[in-house]
Amino acid sequence: MSHILKNDRVKLLAGVDSDKEPSRVVKIIGDKDMALVQGRNMKWKHLRRSQDYPHGARVQKEAPIPLSKLMVICPACAKPTRVKYLVTEKAKTRICAKCKKPLGEGK
User: Fold this and answer.
1) 100 dihedral zone (left: phi>0; alpha: psi -120 to 50; beta)
2) In terms of DSSP bridges, do strands 42-47 and 70-73 run parallel, antiparallel, or are they unpaired?
3) Mean pLDDT of successive 10-residue segments in the chain (107 residues)?
4) For residue 1, which of 102, 100, 91, 99 has the smallest C-alpha distance?
5) Domain locations in the chain?
6) What residues contact 58, with CB distance under 8 A and at least 6 apart?
7) Segment holding 86, helix H or strand E
């Protein structure tokens, strides 16, 4: 289980977009330990001519960000926090390291 899941609100710790507001995780790329964050780390993709784009096009897309550069925002205390785990006989739950409240499902 990753410490960051889809639909979590996250803050970027480093990079050009680190000073911006927190945003949502769109997709987790598990085998590379990276995530796509909505509206962050935007890169230009150049498309060649096709029926959809008869003159070609430039499209902005989100590029993957390493999970180590992201920090989860706790919904209860609204602060960036580390993730701890509460393991019981039934389940393993993610909790906020600051306020000790559950972080939710994320899915």
Assistant:
1) left
2) unpaired
3) 89 91 93 93 95 95 94 92 92 90 72
4) 91
5) 9-96
6) 44, 45, 46, 47
7) strand 83-87
The residues near 102 (Cβ < 8 Å, ≥ 6 apart) are: 86, 93, 94, 95, 96
CATH number of 9-96: 2.30.30.30
Q: Can you tell me the distance from the alpha carbon of 12 to that of 15, in angstroms, rounded to the nearest whole number? A: 7
pTM: 0.82
CA-based angle 42:48:51, to the nearest 5?
115
Note the pLDDT of residue 1: 65
Residue 105 pLDDT: 66
How many CB atoms within 10 Å of residue 25? Answer: 22
Listing DSSP states for 3-58 in one string gives SS-TT-EEEE-SSGGGGSPPEEEEEEEGGGTEEEETTSSEEEEEE---SS-TT-EE
